[in-house]
histidine kinase (Devosia riboflavina), 331 residues
Amino acid sequence: MTEAPRIPTKWRPSMALVVYSVLLVVLGLPSGLIVLVRTLGGRGLSALETGVLVASLIVTLVIAYVLTRAVTKPIAALVGRTREISQGGRDAIRPLDAYGTAELATLSQGFLDLASRLMDRTEYMRSFAAHVSHELKSPLTAIRGSAELMRDDGAGMTGAERQRFLDHIIADADRLTRHVARLRELAQAEMPLARGETTLDAVLPDLRSHFSTLRVTASGEDVVLGLPKEALGIVLTHLAENSAEHGAKHLEIAARREEERVTLTVADDGEGISEGNRDRIFQPFFTTRRESGGTGMGLDIVRAMLEAHDAGIELVPSNKGATFRLGLPNR
């Protein structure tokens, strides 16, 4: 694990020392000048003047104390909360009891938001690692089992039996290859590509040639979309592949500019998505086609790619097939 950069160790004044010093200088400089002028003029301070100076000093110290508490207490609480979060996880992500100033409240909220996102990312990676381990373990176990059987009993096998085991090994190796390819695509999707914009016109020719069995129609082809061409191509390719694998013959894509976003609707006439699976389709490795080679990563790649470009995707109700609505930046 990479160690965090260390702040150089040297003496630095505390916040309390800075506040007290500033206020005392602000009070002491004019007061000292008054005393000096009176002394050089041969006139001392009257009892009233001395009392006023003493009272001013006391008031200054009280103000310094209040300001110091208003600033240092929330900062100390925020520092303590960072230690709690590093040791206690999500349960420690909670608001402070006091914030002192508007700037410290904004700083604290930004820190809590960052901590929450990092915790979400950590939990996602933990879950994702468990899924990857399970998905890769199954074909590896099958390959190992087939190879051991051929090693131990290969001499007594018929040609057809050996061919069957070899076919199983090749099929499981192909499954591993697909998983590795999708994992690479997912890693690339979560790393934002260069910012840019494009239109449907720029990606539709490649999409139609790649999916010759799908009749792809579109509207709003000239609407500017807040995604680079490469990202939009990846997103539509995975959605079209998902449609084709579920029996769709027609894919309709519509782009529409709204006030703050651009909406891209992708609808097909395939088998659709059952009610029980609607909440699971964006989960990594969820698929209803595992026996026929599905990896369950296509929609997760789409989601990650869009989120990397400040966009999003949702499944919306439809009378036939599946309909996805994408919200894209309006640049």
About this structure: The two ends are 38 Å apart (CA to CA).
